[in-house]
Design a protein that fits this description.
The chain is of the alpha+beta class. Helices cover about 35% and strands about 25% of the residues.
Length: about 375
């Protein structure tokens, strides 16, 4: 049977089928970590995701004989395009069976949509912003993923090459062993940096308080620290409000470090949390009837893996040892909680400054993912 492509409307029922296909395709795969279906629907719905203030998007599904066989979303981010001086089309949320006809039909639909809007290049997988998953897995297919990354089958990059896509950029990921104590050199550097720049470590036991005092400042710091990174889309005030309400309520505050000047100005933040990978696998994308229990238990620290979600340092304090101060604060909590391993999550392969912060830890680079690009 021929492949047919359907342009989706942003209704709950159509987006539900779209997200569910991306989970069902990996049924039985021990490395796939499913997202929460409702979260994905919220991301893809222009009524709930403030990124649509400056993004256009269209989701497509491929069918054969009435059965779904692929999905993809086309995105145009006008903020990034204006910043980069190009008219790029992004693709994301992409999944498909290993079938040339299916893959061709999906990308033909996306490219036609982009050309109608004067796009001259296509790049991905990448989402609306850096808060979405990015990068197609090209190494590490036998490793369980994290909640912050994409998992895909090993035939995906082969299909991208067949379509004429080439590497645009790679991200790498490390798995570190949590040491029995904070490395002595980290402690010495942290002490020097703290005294030299008169910095303070602020610890919180109240999510409401950290939200009130540093919720906006945290995401404004991300905008400042990540401004020059690949594909970065600056978060708007509406997006910042959205992510404050979405993420701060689920933080495990012992796994968060806030560094400020004496006057309270935010200098750096390190956000980590217990791995939710196993809990999300038990959920299968659903909070009910028991998914909430598995997630709540994981959030409270019942895991031997900690995910390092982000580290952001003000540009004028980068490469001055502030990262050592962050981890001299975080590591005792990791050890106390019984974490055995830490997942770095994605970092650009050329970002040596980020990779230097792991040099005192036993580690292995265990995953690599890629953004592909093609001129239209």
């Amino acid at each position: 049977m021929a492949v047919t492509i359907k342009s989706l409307r942003p209704t709950f029922s159509e987006l539900y089928r779209y997200v569910k296909f991306g989970i069902d395709l990996y049924k039985g795969n021990p490395c796939f970590v499913p997202p929460l279906i409702l979260d994905e629907i919220q991301t893809l719905n222009p009524k709930t995701n403030p990124a649509f203030d400056h993004c256009q998007a269209q989701s497509f599904m491929a069918y054969r004989d009435g059965k779904p066989v692929g999905r993809i979303t086309a995105i145009i981010n006008s903020l990034v395009n204006e910043k980069n001086g190009e008219q790029a089309l992004r693709f994301g949320f992409v999944d498909f069976i290993d079938d040339d006809e299916v893959v061709d039909a999906l990308f033909d639909a996306v490219i036609a949509w982009g050309r109608e809007r004067s796009c001259t290049a296509i790049v991905g997988p990448i989402g609306f912003s850096d808060m979405d998953h990015e990068g197609m897995l090209i190494e590490g297919f036998d490793e369980m993923g994290t909640m912050a990354t994409i998992y895909n089958y090993d035939y995906y990059p082969r299909q991208m090459q067949r379509l004429g896509f080439a590497k645009d950029v790679d991200w790498i990921e490390y798995r570190m062993t949590v040491p029995d104590k904070v490395p002595d050199k980290y402690m010495r550097i942290a002490d020097i940096v703290q005294r030299k720049y008169d910095l303070q470590i602020r610890k919180y036991t109240s999510r409401k308080k950290i939200k009130r005092e540093y919720g906006h400042a945290l995401f404004e710091l991300i905008n400042e620290a990540y401004a020059d990174l690949y594909g970065f889309s600056p978060l708007t005030p509406r997006q910042i409000e959205y992510y404050i309400s979405q993420y701060i309520p689920v933080l495990r505050l012992r796994d968060v470090s806030v560094i400020t000047k004496r006057d309270g100005e935010l200098v750096a933040v390190g956000i980590s949390m217990p791995s939710l990978s196993s809990a999300l696998r038990r959920c299968g994308g659903h909070l009910l009837p028991t998914g909430w229990y598995h997630l709540l238990r994981a959030i409270r620290g019942h895991s031997d893996v900690v995910d390092l979600l982000l580290v952001a340092v003000k540009p004028e304090y980068q490469n001055k040892g502030v990262n050592a101060l962050l981890f001299s604060d975080l590591l005792p909590g990791y050890i106390e909680n019984g974490y055995k391993f830490a997942e770095s999550n994605v970092e650009l392969e050329g970002n040596e400054n980020v990779q230097k912060q792991w040099e005192y830890f036993e580690r292995r680079q265990h995953r690599r993912r890629r953004a592909f690009k093609k001129q239209l």
